[in-house]
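Bumping with the actual sequence this time:
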Amino acid sequence: MSLVDQSLRLLTDEGSLLAEYPVSTALNGAGERDGSGCTPRGKHYIRARIGDGQPLNAVFRGRRPTGEVYTPDLAAAYPDRDWILTRILWLCGREWRRNRGPGVDTFRRFIYIHGTPDTEPMGIPMSHGCVRMRNSDLLELFERAPVGMHVTIE
């Protein structure tokens, strides 16, 4: 994943490009510290896949589906909500003291790859630390991304 390009590239084990998706990472830029609101860099893996079987635009809070489906009316009713939609790929750092361990732990920071409203721009850093994707792109990625899959954020 490229923070500079605001893109996620899905590669084969040999390094061939399978797909490329626009993303939106942290408004605060790159960083690993707890409470920073930054997107953590380095080597990670997918620790959990959440939301299999939920509808497109399903709303999640605390990693659980609320039973709601995102609509403009729901957004108007909750204008300050940071929408986590469709699916969640929960990341865990693989580098001790960089993105794993006290003060820098990606998993404990609840850093995800997740869906966002289609009205939110891609290619522009705007998140609170997570990696936001278009919901249709996330559905496609989710089907190809098993638990344990390596994710590098540069």
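The tokens above came from a reply further down the thread. Strands lie at 7-11, 17-24, 42-50, 58-61, 64-69, 84-93, 112-115, 131-133, 150-153.
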